[in-house]
Protein: P-type ATPase A domain-containing protein
Organism: Blastocystis sp. subtype 1
Amino acid sequence: MAESSLLIDPISKEYDLRERLIDLDTLYGILGLSNPEAGLDSKTALMKLQRDGLNKVTPPINLPSWMCCLLPCVKSLPKIQLYNRMCPETARVMRDGRMMVVDAADLVVGDIIFLKSDSIVPADCRIIECKDHLQVDRSYFFSENPVMECYSLGSSSASNHLFYQPDLCFMASRVITGEAKAVVIRTGDKTFWGYMCLYKRRDSFL
């Protein structure tokens, strides 16, 4: 069994969120998204970024300050190399009514983002619409049935288990095929990946 599989149950109990269980129109209101077609305006996005912090996940290691001199060695650890490969660099987002490419760290809840094949999902999100048979690789999180076929539930609310909800994508997953438009519901350490890294920091010194 993969190491990550052992963490799924306790993480799911802490992570499971109401944002996945309500219809999209209600969700937009909760996220402060008045116009999903135009996306957030820059002023609102900046206010959310200042409130919630950068969309970055804390690495899955404990690194006391006195170990700073060992940083080059730490960077060579397999779990850190994997972490670095999973970190999204940029994201396509709709803001002020136009699509733009931004640093993935600047994403906020309520952002409308666009996913495409061979890209890393930059934040936890719910699918609004998709095409070309959207499939997402979640093998880092789930050793069983790691490839998920995703699609929008439209205006319906979810009834599936967290791990099998077809319109839910987790940060650091990789899009295999297809394209999608989605709304960001969690960022940074509040994402599923963030919770997983937290548990790994609790369980090991490094």
